[in-house]
Amino acid sequence: QEQLVESGGGLVQAGGSLRLSCAASGVTFDTFAMGWVRQAPGKDRELVAAISTSGGRTYYADSVKGRFTMSRDNGKNTVSLQMNSLKPEDTAVYYCAGRRAYSGTVTYTFPNQYNYWGQGTQVTVSS
Questions:
Q1: Do the Cβ atoms of 5 and 79 come closer than 8 Å?
Q2: What is the dihedral of CA 114, 118, 119, 121, to 10 degrees?
Q3: Helix (H, G, I), strand (E, B) or coil at 96
Q4: Given Cys at both, which of 23, 26, 28, 98 links 32, Cβ 3.0 to 4.6 Å?
């Protein structure tokens, strides 16, 4: 059974850092493109970062570019999101998402392109 499990959320002050991790099981991980999607209360889902199957290509939303870094370890079936210089507007539930990729170099940049989802982890940034 395919499963994505996030960890690493929490409460942090503005300007601080958090690292989110996502462990995948039941999938051929190195054929999956992955993404991190967040949703704040009353707002639409926003894809903040995406990574190709090999990790050679990444995408970042303008709102997090230069502050967030996504990476993956195919040997451990994990992806991570390093979040630095956090702002109150980064407060949201963060979801790990995945899908089989048609190409090794593609990143998927819309939330509805993903069909496997984790349960989400809360990130709260206080001002």
A1: no
A2: -100
A3: strand
A4: 98
Coil, strand or helix at 112: helix
Strand, helix or coil at 31?
helix
Q: pLDDT for 77-106, tens place per residue?
A: 999 999 999 999 999 999 999 999 988 899
Query: Taking Cα atoms as reference points, which of 33, 20, 27 lies closest to residue 110?
Result: 33
First to last CA, the chain: 40
Residue reference for tokens 């995948």: 24
CA dihedral defined by 66, 67, 72, 76, rounded to 10 degrees?
Answer: 160
Contact 80, 58 (CB under 8 A): no
What tens digit of pLDDT does each residue of 7-65 get?
Answer: 999 999 999 999 999 999 999 999 999 999 999 999 999 999 999 999 999 999 999 99
CA distance 116 to 113: 10
User: Distance between CA atoms of 34 and 22, rounded to whole angstroms?
Assistant: 10
